[in-house]
Amino acid sequence: MSRRRPSGGWVHGAGRVGVVAAAAAGVVIGAGHIGAAPAQLDTSSDGARIAASLTTSFCPGDPFKGGDKGTPRVDVTGGVAAHAAPDKVLDGLVTPSQEPGEITIDDLGAVTPDTSDSKPRSGPTSADVDSLDEQPQRVRGTADHAPGLEATQSFTASGKRVRGLAATPCLAPTADAWLVAGGGERGRQERLVLVNPGGNAVTARLDVVGTTQTDSPDRSVVVPAHGREVVLLDAIGGTSAPQAVHVTATGGLVVPTIVDNHLDGLTPAGVETVSPTMAPATRLVLPGNARGSSRGMVLAAPGTRDAVVQIRRLGDDPSRGVKVVTIPANEVVDVDLPAGGGGVHSWVVESDEPVVAAAHVTTTDGSGRSDMAWSVATPSFSGLGGVALPAAPADVQRAVDITATEGPASVDVLVLDDGAVTTERIELEEDRSAALAVKSSSASAVWVRPRSGRVHASALFLGRDGGPKAMATSVPVLPARVSVRDVPVTQAR
After folding, report:
1. Strand (E) positions, 182-242?
2. To which H or E segment does residue 236 belong?
3. I want to staple 35 with a disulfide (CB 3.0 to 4.6 A). Which of 177, 269, 340, 426 is the partner?
4. Domain assignment of residue 153, yes or no
5. Domain tally for the chain?
6. What does the CA dihedral 436, 439, 441, 447 come to, rounded to 10 degrees?
7. Is residue 121 part of a domain?
8. Helices (DSSP H) in 59-154: which residue ranges?
9. Secondary structure (3-state) at 82
10. Is residue 258 part of a domain?
11. In Å, what is the CA distance from 31 to each residue of 45, 418, 462?
12. Per the domain annotation, does 7 fall within a domain?
């Protein structure tokens, strides 16, 4: 079935963009950590770097199935898509295993140990499931399908109470994560989905900025083995403000996601699944933002001191300061941002005290229906980042926003479309952002390879404001797991 390609006129690039034939050399070790302060990757020469032979991530499942009694009934159409990195993406980074591998997507509760003695065969380099229920999904790539594997869960919701496009990357589990989303409007609800991929129950503690132990004495949630729990955050943090929640797990690891949905009176006003943002810091970069009918940023100061915050906009022109605000200690503030400035861009947050942040944009169609996209603060990377692109209507425009804030960068952007990989090169000055339009509606994955420098990146899906479709979502481009370090072990004498 052919689909019309969307126009890319809303995207403004920064610097020079040209088609190139090959990617740069480099080495990536492991995957970046989002939600807690990322450790610096060890780039010393000790130990050989070998291709990852197993990559595993987890997706939350349908957030509106199996929840509390107040969970709205929603018709959800969607699934999970996973793509192994082609040889062209990995060329010069790592040599994949010669052992044949495969990609599997399974209900987490149905995963059983592999007892097969048959000789492994190389399976397809892409896999997907076309339905979602309350079961979380495990995505696994083995052997030659493991390095650079990317997976995304996405869905389109329709119904009287919830409508819109939502997507989130499938992630590795963590013991420490920060999530920011939501709002204080009537009809706004934020649910936290906690997935436990392990074989033992995990206790997750939820600390919501703006509350005290007296306000909410019961903040611990037990997540069953190979299962999930859905928590209504309004019951912990109240309904008068957005939510900034710190999740810490004991006894195991979890994969957390916030589901934000808005019912404006009787009209569905959008839905989004929001992945973890970066841990509190004095400088944050939030790529993948654009102009809509409204836009803003939720900031929280989780410490004991007020934070003075400056917000700057990075695009294809020199950076501009757009707002300076003071965030009271242990409070969450939703900051309105100016509607001017078209095209895709990034926000930079600079503060005198550590803060957490996520940005939002709302689009409204010609019938007055709206949807929202949330962009989180992302880690920078110098090796390889990637994202599986969610399915979306053909008239929803798609772009990958790439930002350089730690010096200039030269970047290759590799797009997987119907089995073929095309490469475009972007040259970025420091404190500039470039948006590459993904014009083909059949494109299924994007990998970002800096040839020099470090970058932040995100994929943004946005219907034209006032146009026929208001659907919107944003998916961060995160560091990809490509290789591991083989450290020699010497027996002590």
Report:
1. 188-196, 202-208, 220-223, 227-232
2. helix 234-237
3. 177
4. yes
5. 1
6. -30
7. yes
8. 87-90
9. strand
10. yes
11. 18, 26, 28
12. no
